[in-house]
Structures are given as structure tokens and as C-alpha cells.
Amino acid sequence: MYQLLTGYVLWLVFAVFFGGLAWRVYTYIKGLDWKLDRVPYGYHTAAGVKGAMNSILSWIVPFGSQGWKVKPIFTILFFTFHIGLVVTPLFLAGHIVLFKMRFGLSWPAIPMLLADVLTVAMICAGLFIAVRRFALPEVRIVTTLYDYLLLLITVAPFVTGFMAVHQLGGDYEFWLLAHVIAGEIMLLAVPFTKLYHVVGFFLSRGQLGMDYGIKRGGLKGAPMAW
Amino acid sequence: MPEGIFCNKTPVNTKEALEAVLGDKGGKQYYAEMQLLEVDKAKLAASIKNTCKSRTRTWLEMCAHCGLCGDSCFLYLCNNRDPKQVPAYKIQSTLGEIVKRNGDVDNAFMQHAMEVAWSQCTCCNRCGQYCPYGIDMGVMFGYLRGLLYSQGFVPWELKIGAGMHRVFKAQMNVTDEDWTETCEWMAEEAQDEWPGLEIPIDKQDADIMYTVNAREPKHYPEDISEAAVIFHVAGENWTVPSSGWEQTSLALFAGDWEACAQQVKHVYAAIDRLNPKRAVGTECGHAHRATVIEGPFWAGRPDGLTPKPYLHYTEWLAEALREGKIKIDPAKRIKQPVTLQDSCNYIRNYGLKEITREIISYIVEPGYFVEMSPNKEHNYCCGGGGGFNGMGIFRPQRNRALMTKRDQILATGCKLVIAPCHNCWDAIRDLEEEFKIGIKWSFLKPLIISMMIVPEHLQPKEEEE
User: Fold this and answer.
1) Is B339 helix (H, G, I), strand (E, B) or coil?
2) Is A226 part of a structural domain of the chain?
3) ipTM of this complex
4) For the segment B420-456, what is each residue's pLDDT rounded down to a tens digit?
5) B354 CB within 8 Å of a chain A CB
6) Which residues on chain A are in Cβ contact (under 8 Å) with B53?
7) Which of A68, A194, B93, B337 could pair covalently with B414 via S-S, beta carbons 3.0-4.6 A apart?
8) Which residues in chain A are contacts of B131 at CB distance < 8 A?
9) B325, B337, B334: which is closest to B365 by C-alpha?
């Protein structure tokens, strides 16, 4: 079972993950319409790229934008969550070993202690993000069960992975298998749910940045102070 | 399909129709008819299919429901943080539902959507600035307004406003004759004090073609003569078109994209006809938005540029002051605490934040200028943007919306507010009327005239005894 799930099934999951995201990028760009969006795509390219970069960088750097600065607690939760989410699985020694075995590729790993810290921090941040969803009226009103489900899908591989690595909860085999399945569910969910923001963030932030970079002030030499 | 006489899906296209709907005072019958107006679901579904493309769909689908947009919205803040005023909620529960249900919505839903689209959003675009994904709900509300307008669910005044542009190519039923007569009258009046002053109409190949907001000829003709005086003193070779002089667009507020296109093409036709080097528009925010920022797209110009460079008044003025065409008498500069209203339309959405501050540096004695907080592209809407100033049924909501700007002004301690935008100017006037905080407000033109140095040769000859 483990062999299958980390072999053929994993291949398939990656194919769906990357293929799905590529499809997301393709349909997004294909659906952009200069007339309806009122953005001159294809003209003023340098200003557009500059605006897109300004927009993306301001938001991908912690406290880089006004929006992050006015919400310091959320910003810390947000970045803790996302850094743990991206860095841990990509640089976990166990994952790299597996990857080398299956696909022949290898890269440096982060120390186990750091992986643990990132994982626990990410899970805690996820918990607070869930609490925030029902504690704050302005968040509660827009929150749906779907949002909790996505949070669960995202956190599950980390909880199960932590249990397996530290041999907690008794049955190692169970937790390992649960971890692999949870991880694959998450990867599969990404292109089909709004988790596609792994590419969508760059597209959407980039698009608005381009809008501001060209039409809404950029050509006037006044870059938006996001 | 029940359609009202006034409230229906057909835009106002004739003078007779316009007069008829204007005759329905306050839109009493209009809103009564709206209760029965049927939704053309097939048409709505077709509109969504044709116009709701990847950007809007991504914005609607991808919204993480994080609620960060709440605090960015002045209407959320000034309505006691009512969760129903969170931008994401407002757009998801209106446009989001319409798209999700593919247009299968009823009359009550559309009326609710109309209320949200015109009384809970001024399309200031501040939320897009504060959304991690850059979801610009102001843009989406503009889009929603278009869908609502096409189904006849639009506030009475804006149906009329859009009709005005269709019929007169100007709001407030100002005709081209009214306009040219006003210009001639203003020139004549000003000549006593300003010998040689002219308001040249339809002059070919001038350096500047000047365009205005129709309420200037209608209610504030002195604004036109002030512009003329300043151009005169600056020695500009300028003109106004006899037709295509009206730069505003109530059609933009209404979501009547066809009328928006007609209006802006009419202005561009004047540019083509008169061939000026540049065009300059008056101190108005949405007029600039309609003619210069969004206009090129309505007119089908894929590079997003106007046919000739088109300056906002503040850009021209800053240039004239910088180059010394207009010189300020240092003794007459403003020597009282003064603040500046940043108009969403040309500050957040056109990047002129430093231009207006450059003007301030010439006309205010150092140490007297006080910034609002927040300011520049982060400033709050005046409270009357996006058509909010002009709709009777939403007056109470508009008046409440003014509280944000009131508190911002109060916090500066200033008694004078410079507001180089007709909409902001109105909102600030109304907030003074509503809350009596003892402030004065002004456009730039009268301030400049009060402090500019008039060259000897332009000064009126002393009457001989």
C-alpha cells in the first residue's frame, strides 16, 4: 500500500497537481480581456511588469504592505502558517530521501528540529486562523463550512506527519499511511479548490499591480505604495 | 414581461422620455414600478457569460474569506463595524450570488443588490489595496451596477443622469448652446477686470483644449471664468470646444457602459476636430476617471491612452507653477492650518498624490499644511463618491457616510479644506451643513486667483479721473 501510494499514485497526484495548476494559469490569462477589464494588456509592458512585481513583492514580504502593517497579529499567523506549509514538506529530510528513491532527485534538507518547530508553529497558526474565523464578526460573516474544510485538508498532512515522525499515537504504520493520504488529498485539492491561490495569488496580485502600474498611476511615475 | 413606464430595461434615449421621467418627482412612480419589474433571467445569464471573465470569476471564487477588507472600507467603519458592510460579504452576497445562480434571481434580490451596489459602495477601490489577493471589490461593484442597470434596477436619478448623457451629451440638461452662451457671458463679465481676456471657442490647433463638468455652466459659471483668468494670466493658447466640452459621466455611476462610450467618444471627437496639443480637464475626479482613465477603453483604444495627452487640472496647475507661468505672491499664501482632500479617482486611481502636494508647496506658507490620516492613495472616500451624493433614496446612508471624512478633517484641526474635486467638494459642503464643524472648503482656482501675481501688462488700466 505504502509503495503504491508513494509510487504510481504519487506520480498521478503530481501530474494532476501541476497539470491542474497549469490549466488554472492558462485559463486565467486566456480570460483576461483588455476591454472588459479596462487594462491595456500588451501595451506599456515594462510599466506593467514593474507594477505587477511591486504588487506581488509588497504582499509576499511580511509587513511589506500597508495591509499587513495594520494587522500585525494576523500577519504573523499568516506567514507562520504559509512558511511552515511550504518550507517543511519541500525540505524535510524524509521527503527528500523518498524523492531520491522514487525520482532520483535530491537537494539539501533542513534540520529536523527546525522542521518540528515549523510544523508545530504552522499547526498552531492554523488553529488560531480557525478560531479567528468564528471569533471575529467581520470574518464570521464571510466564513462558510467550506473554509473550515479547506483548513482541515491543509493542516491534516502536518498533524499526521508529526504523529508519524515522532511515533506518537501508537500505530506508526497507520499515521504514516494517513499522512501520505492526507498529503495527496491536499495536493489534489489545490487545483480544484480555492487553494489554487498557490498560483492564483501571483496572477491576481500581479494583475491588479499591472492595472495600477499602467493605468492607475504607474505611467505617471507614481508607483502605488501598497 | 411587466415593464414600468419609467422603470424598465430601456435606457432614456429621447428628450421626451427624459422629460417624462424627470416629471415623476422623486421617482415615486418609478420606484413603485420597480416593485413589479421582472428580471430577464435569460438576458442576465447571457450578460454573465459574455462579460464575467477570468479576472472577476477568480476574484469571486478565490476570496479566502479572511475579512481583512473590513477595516479598509470606510462604510464598514462608519456603520459601527456592521459585518454586513464587509466588502467581501457585500460583493459575495450580491454579484457572487448572481453569478453562482447564473442569473436566476428575483425582483427582491435585485432590489437588494441595487441598494448594496449604490449605497454600500462608492467604488473608491480602497479594499483592493488591502486584499492580499488584490481583489478589487470597487471594480466588481462597478460591474454589478452594469448588470443591474441593464435590468432596470438603478436609482431614479442615475437612470436620468445616464439619459442626460445620451440625449444632451451632458448631465443636468446643459445644451451646447447653454454652454457657449455661458462662456461668452463669463468672458464678457471678466473683461472689465481682465482686459483682453477671452474664452476662445473652437480654436484650431491650440495648446490646450479645456473641458469641464456640466454643473459649472449650470450652477457655478464663475468656475469657468476663474479657469479663463488663470489661463489668461499664464499666457496659455487655449480653447474650449463648442461641443464635447462635458467631461463628466453619470453613466459611469449608473453602469450604463453604452452611454459612457458615447460620452467619451464625443469628447475625443472634439479633440480630433480641434487638434489641440493637449487637453486639460477641470477640478473633478470622476470626470477625469471617465474621460482619461477608463474612457480610452470604452472608446475602444487598446493602448488605454487618450487621443492626445489629457491632464487633470492639478497637473496643468502644478506645471504652470513649476515653470513660473503662474507666480504666487508669497505674502498672500495661505497662513492658516489647511488640509487637502485626496480624491480617490485621480489620487488612488491615477497617482497624482505628489502633484497636488507640489501645488500645496507653492500656495501654503510652510508649516501650515496638515495631512489627513490616512492620506494619499490610502485616503478615505469623501463619503459622496460613485454617485452617492446624488441619490434621494440613499440620502440617510450618504449622510452617515460623511462621518468618516468629518472625523478625519476634525483630527487635522484645520478649518480650511482644499478639495480639487467636484464630488469631494460637494460632500465636504454637505458634511459642514449636516454636522456644522465650522470649516471652509475650496477648489484650487479661487485660491490661486487670490494669491497670484498679475503681470503689469495684464492689469486693468486705472480709470482716469
Assistant:
1) strand
2) no
3) 0.96
4) 999 999 999 999 999 999 999 999 999 999 999 999 9
5) yes
6) 31-33, 36-37
7) B337
8) 67
9) B334
Q: Do residues B200 and B280 share a domain?
A: yes
| A-proximal residues of B, 358-387, CB under 8 Å | 376-378
Do B185 and B144 sit in the same domain of this protein?
no
The CATH number covering residue B109 comes to 1.10.1060
Number of domains within chain B = 3
Q: Do A38 and B294 touch (CB under 8 A)?
A: yes
Measured in degrees and rounded to the nearest 5, phi and psi for residue B416 equal: -130, 130
Cβ contact (<8 Å) for A209 and B352?
no
B344 occurs within a structural domain: yes
Give me the residue label for grid cell 480557525. A130
Record: contact B55-A144, CB cut-off 8 A: no
Question: Does B441 lie in the same domain as B345?
Answer: yes
Of A142, A201, A217, the CB nearest to B92: A142
The model carries a pTM of 0.96
How many other C-beta atoms can be found within 10 angstroms of the C-beta atom of residue B275? 12
CATH code (residue A182) = 1.20.950
User: What residues does B417 pair with on adjacent strands?
Assistant: B339, B441
* Structural domain harbouring A216: 2-220
Distance from CA of A15 to the nearest CA of B (A): 22
Query: Which of B58, B89, B130 is the closest to A142 by Cβ?
Result: B89
pLDDT in tens, A37-70: 999 999 999 999 999 999 999 999 999 999 999 9
Same domain, yes or no: B375 and B280: no
C-alpha cell at B307: 487621443
Are the C-beta atoms of residues B345 and B286 closer than 8 Å to each other? Answer: yes
Whether B459 is in a domain gets the answer: no
CATH number for the domain spanning B412: value is 3.40.50
Q: How confident is the model at residue B462 (pLDDT cuts 50, 70, 90)?
A: low
Nearest CB to A226; choose among B67, B129, B303: B129
Interhelix angle B353-363/B444-451, nearest 10 degrees:
30
Domain annotation covers residue B34: no
